[in-house]
Amino acid sequence: MPDAPHDADAPLPKNIADDETIVRGILTPWQVRNGKLRRQAFQPPKGSSELSVMRLLKGSDFCKDKAVEIASKNTSNNYSGLMTIRADGIRSDGRTNVLDSPDPPNFRFPAISRG
Q1: In a domain, 91, yes or no
Q2: In the chain, N or C: fewer CB atoms in 10 Å?
């Protein structure tokens, strides 16, 4: 079962299985307007082809805490919730992948990359 939480101090497996759940922190008002997700919630920042996401293997509390931390860096954004998708759903168009990238050491945060 790929989504069972990992030991918080243990590094995650480098390979991301198709049935692994990927998590995106959702912030308002940047990614939500009038109660609906905006398109930019799923798009990388300008000048980048990668969208930063997290792995549910770290646990939902870890993912929420990280999203709240990111939201707190910009006073105009507020944490709204978490969005999840399986890795195979990301890969289903044949042009988009979810890849592991180390940041910081011993924690792995993947990026959705379109190429």
Answers
A1: yes
A2: N
Does the predicted model carry a pTM greater than 0.70? yes
Cβ-based neighbours of 85, under 8 Å, separated by 6 or more: 21, 22, 24
Q: Which two tokens stand for residue 54?
A: 């997290």
Beta strands 78-86; 32-33: pairing state: unpaired
**CA separation for the pair 108, 17 (Å, rounded):** 14
Tell me the residue type at 8: A
Residue 51 belongs to what domain range? 21-114
Which of helix, strand or coil describes residue 5?
coil
* In a domain? residue 89: yes
pLDDT tens digits along 91-105: 998 888 888 876 554
The helix/strand/coil state of 25 is strand
The answer as to whether 45 is a domain residue is yes
